[in-house]
Amino acid sequence: MTSRLDSHHEGDSGSGDRRIVVGALALCLVLTACVASLALAPASASGTNREGPILVVGDSLVVQATRALQSWNLPSVPIIAQGGLGSAPCDWETGYTDPLSGHHVKFSHVFQETRPAAVVFAFTGNPGVEPNSTGCVNSSGRYSLSTLLASYKRALTKMAVYAGEKGARVYLSARRARSMPT
């Protein structure tokens, strides 16, 4: 993690488009490494599942990048992108109700449905949708970066361990921190 912060703010013109492009490029790099490692991995001696899609789980930027991710048409490696508006790892780990679709979403359920060979976690820093039921940060007031990071660490660790125990490789897509509007 770096301590340098981006200088652009939410209100800057085009910053939303830049975030989508930067997010998609970061996912591109992670997915390229993911596909290469799956192709070069030794046969099932490692205990990893080499058959199956790549599951990308994240927030609304994953949803916005879904078409780009799926347009790569990687030979015999389907990409399944699952994201939720305003969601954070804590929502996905314990399960939450997506505010747009009204569907209950939980990582372990999505994992069991898709049985991926690899999982890419791609979140951008949302505090979470349902703080009271999922243990996410309550965004109705001020919260510290350390509180947010602790929430991310707890949930990402649990989901990564779950996926790893089921034979999937796990990757984190991350980009450097950005400054929040003042």
Write up this protein.
- This protein has helices at 15-40, 60-70, 89-94, 107-114, 131-134, 145-165; strands at residues 54-59, 79-84, 96-97, 104-105, 118-122, 169-173.
- The longest helix is centred in the N-terminal third of the chain and has 26 residues, at 15-40.
- The strands form two sheets. It has a four-stranded parallel sheet with strand order 2-1-5-6, with helices on both faces. A two-stranded antiparallel ribbon has the order 3-4.
- It has a single domain, classed as Rossmann fold.
- It is of the alpha/beta class and 182 residues long.
- Helix 1 crosses helix 2.
CATH architecture: 3-Layer(aba) Sandwich
Q: In percent terms, what proportion of residues is strand?
A: 5-15%
Q: Mean of the pLDDT scores? A: 75
Helix count, DSSP H or I runs of 4 or more residues = 6
The succession of helices and strands, N to C, reads HEHEHEEHEHHE
Q: Report the helical percentage.
A: 40-55%
The tally of structural domains comes to 1
Characterize the overall form.
Answer: globular
Strand order of the largest sheet: 2-1-5-6
Quickly name the level 1 CATH class.
Alpha Beta
Structural class: alpha/beta
Q: CA-to-CA gap between the ends?
A: 22 Å
C-alpha Rg (nearest Å): 16 Å
Task: Quote the CATH topology.
Answer: Rossmann fold
Largest sheet: 4 strands, parallel
What low-confidence regions span 5 or more consecutive residues with pLDDT below 50?
Answer: 1-13, 31-46
Instruction: Say how many strands there are.
Output: 6
